[in-house]
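User: Here's a protein and a ligand (flavin-adenine dinucleotide). What would the complex look like?
Assistant: Let me lay out the input and then the predicted complex.
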Amino acid sequence: MSLVDPSSRAALAAESRGPVLVPGDPGYDAARSVWNARVDRRPDAVLRCRGAADVAAGVSFARDRGLTLGVKGGGHHVSGAAVPDGGLLVDLSPMDRVRVDPAERVARVGPGATWGDVDPETQAHGLAVPGGQDPNIGVGGLTLGGGVGWLSRQHGLTCDNLLAADVVTAGGDLLRATVTENPDLFWALRGGGGQFGVVTEFTFRLHEVGPTVLAGSLVYPADRTAAVARYYREFVAEAPRAARPLFGSMVLPDASAYPESVRGERVAIIVVCYAGPPPAGRRALEPLRERGDPVMDSFRPRPYVEFQRAGDSEGARRTDLRSQYMERLGEDAIGTIVAGVEDAPSDGATVFVSPRGGAETDPPTDATAYPHRSDAHHCLVEARWDDPERDAAHDAWVRSLHEALQPYATGDVALNFLADEEPPERRRAAYGDNYERLLDVKRAWDPAGVFGGPAPVKP
Ligand SMILES: Cc1cc2nc3c(=O)[nH]c(=O)nc-3n(C[C@H](O)[C@H](O)[C@H](O)COP(=O)(O)OP(=O)(O)OC[C@H]3O[C@@H](n4cnc5c(N)ncnc54)[C@H](O)[C@@H]3O)c2cc1C
């Protein structure tokens, strides 16, 4: 049965407040599109949800008719797993309300909100929840997959700051999950992805942050990449938790904001956000800023919201990426990265390395479903481009650099950075030692496999 058939569409529309869109309807293509422009999936229908009751109607409708169900938050996951080919897409993006209770220090966030929606609201009170480093990322997928960002060394993962989730279950029931209510479900939602239910509201604990933080970057010519990687490594080893650095190789925009010698050029870069008082940040960053004579030093006190916006990855482009963790950023790994970026197929090819540590790794491995609780470096090899004829060149570059880095990799995998065509062992590694317990939760809450995702567990 296809939802394109008018009577089925009318039946779903009768049960929901939000519109039901089918191919050809205005808004259908926007609703099915995701951040990775390579993903071109065509659900039979899209339910643009206006509330939890719509979500429950969509889940029940798809389940009862055996339709494939997709659930889209921000649509930012590189795999495009949110959107099904055929079946029903439950589009949460209209549910983007953010309410902050400054006295209680909590934020209640709709599942269609992005970090670009959340940060200005929380920062209006000088508060924040650790979120993603690109304002386009959805709160939904990021939180359910763990969630790292500029604040996570100091305040933990996004999922560690989740206090409650309102959930629509596979049975179409609406319930709440917290450490005391439906605790097994709550455990699984914090790192196990969206495969146990649809979250219709996230309640987060907030922390005092800024609103002014010390943040910026140090830029060096590309021929200094190896040395800059070492500066990053040495800084991480000593840095206070309030400082989260990132080291990368990228091509700068050809813009007047950058010194002429590096405009439009590949550079080595270190970006840091210091989330404590700026004077303390200046002292903490001094050893790093004194090293290696950067061509640009843009550290200054600035609004946290402004810094978050600077991570905007700007619209849909074709994308391939592979992520891995390395226990140490050793000389061999640095040499592999340097050789890799020398072979970059275009300006959109990047490597970024960031630390996993601090508050992020304080909880034990089984505290939540998110299992990666030991100190390491996350290394993201990513390419973005526009011309479909250049797919093969970019895929080959991403995959061969990923392969070359494997001798230094821990083997654990971030669910939030799993690409579409990854082998089963990488999918399983996203859950580490928590895999068996997640199977039990899946058996209890979604035995028929109504919900999927980038790496569904299958009892
Ligand atoms: C360039 C780039 C930068 C990134 N930066 C960061 C970063 O700084 N930190 C970080 O942690 N991650 C980062 N990510 C990864 C990002 O966290 C994931 O892609 C995340 O899943 C995106 O969430 P979303 O809601 O936008 O995704 P979607 O594509 O909408 O969803 C991803 C998955 O979650 C499911 N889902 C979404 N919302 C819900 C819900 N409410 N209930 C149930 N299931 C749901 C979807 O069905 C889908 O399977 C980045 C990714 C890229 C490509």
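Summary: The first helix runs from residue 6 to 15.
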